[in-house]
Amino acid sequence: MSLTRRQVLKYGTFATAGATLFGTQSLLAPRSMAATTLTGVTYLPDSYKALTYGSNRFVEMLQENGGDLLNVDFHDSGQLLKVDEQLPALRARSIDFMFHTFSYITRSIPILGVTGLPGVVGELYRNPERLRQGSPLMELINEVLAEENLYMLTSGGGILEPEYLWSTEGSPIRNLDDVRGKKIRIVGFEATQAFEKYNVGATRIPSSETYMALQRGTVDAGIFNISTIIGRSLQEQLQYCYKLPITGFSVAPFMLRDTWDRLDDETRAIIQQAADWYDANFIDHCNNDIYPNEYWPMVEEAGIEIIEPTEEDLDTFNAGVEEVWDMWKEEVGQEVGDRAIALALGQA
């Protein structure tokens, strides 16, 4: 039977089929020379210049410093696994690490939803230190992740600039009332809940399919980070950006907790060095360099009208966030939820 590598991963037989495809040397086990080989993935393509800046350098550092101890087999652009296949493959030990956006996996890993809660996202964006390595919030997140045998090496040092509402020329959204009845591309669960009362037609569409969805009128608008706008050339299909800070996320490297714990000290130190760099540079580079100096000028050059929300709209939107918080707390537990929100808001 002939299997592609994607099929092997998809059907959970990576380890056994790997021997068939590549000989008796396992792709996941240490090589005979005692080097450890780690297989990693990201679904993000290089067109996401900002979002892949961190993962590219992280992998480069592993390759540069691995020596005879560590080899890295890294696959980007969804070549090995699609976005919804990454987390199951990690849990099945078909891969060893992954870079993933939080918003795609908060339903599977609810604790990550704290980074995208309306009314919290602005505080985390303005105060990135609250999510850096060693912070109480980061420690709490990893305590909860450990219960599922997951480990987040770093958040990237905060969260990216919030996601805003972007709409087409034919279905403009200039204020909160304009949202009602619109077909909106929303990925994050928290944002979906926040807009339930506005009777929107929330649609979960992968970023790779969003350009055509906007072009064909499948959706009228979307909640996007500016990286998605530029990475998928969505500025060609959009006309308005209503800068209501709705939700947010980061892109982080994840491993299984027991995989991390079983690494020898030298190998773990190599990976930790890359994680330290990622924590210090990824979010800072995106938010303070690429976005203001490159991406927002591209949006303005495309003729997109940028609309700041009124104080009334901000107050109206934020007045309903506690309902979303309560639903999220039901997912993570009241005590953990209260503590996480307090840490994110700087109240603990």
Major sheet characteristics: 6 strands, mixed
Q: What CATH first level of the largest domain would be assigned?
A: Alpha Beta
**Head-to-tail CA distance between termini:** 58 Å
Large-scale geometry: globular
Strand content: 5-15%
**Can you give the mean pLDDT?**
91
Count helical runs.
14
Strand order of the largest sheet: 7-6-8-5-9-11
Task: Summarize the structure in words.
- The protein has 348 residues and is of the alpha/beta class.
- Residues 13-33 have low confidence and may be disordered.
- The chain contains 14 helices and eleven strands.
- The relative contact order is 0.16.
- The radius of gyration is 21 Å and the shape is globular.
- The chain has two domains: 5-155 and 250-290, D-Maltodextrin-Binding Protein, domain 2, CATH 3.40.190.170; 163-248 and 293-344, 3-Layer(aba) Sandwich (D-Maltodextrin-Binding Protein, domain 2).
- The chain is 44% helix and 15% strand.
- Helix 3 (49-65) packs antiparallel against helix 11 and helix 13 (321-332) crosses helix 14 (334-344).
- The protein has a six-stranded mixed β-sheet with strand order 7-6-8-5-9-11. A five-stranded mixed β-sheet has the order 2-1-3-10-4.
- The protein has helices at residues 5-10, 14-22, 49-65, 86-91, 121-126, 136-146, 189-194, 207-216, 226-231, 257-262, 265-301, 311-319, 321-332, 334-344, and strands at 36-41, 70-75, 97-101, 150-152, 163-167, 183-185, 201-203, 221-224, 240-247, 251-256, 305-307.
- The N and C termini lie far apart (58 Å).
- This is C4-dicarboxylate ABC transporter substrate-binding protein.
- InterPro entries: DctP_fam, TAT_signal, TRAP_DctP_sf.
- Pfam families: DctP.
- It comes from Halomonas urumqiensis.
- Keywords: Signal.
